[in-house]
Amino acid sequence: MREEMMVNMVRMEELKLHYLGHERQPSFYNNGSEKSVVNKTLKTRLLIAISSLFGRR
Question: Is the overall model pTM greater than 0.70, yes or no?
Fold first, then answer.
């Protein structure tokens, strides 16, 4: 069980890096830009992915 949790943590970090690692521009925080809408959907997908990882026991 502990090992599975560790694997999930690593996967979560990889997902975070994959989705957020490329987006370090100020536009990431700018709600007026079209790009931030894309980033919001990515963040939402990321949250769903994370919750599904932890949901599987």
Answer: no
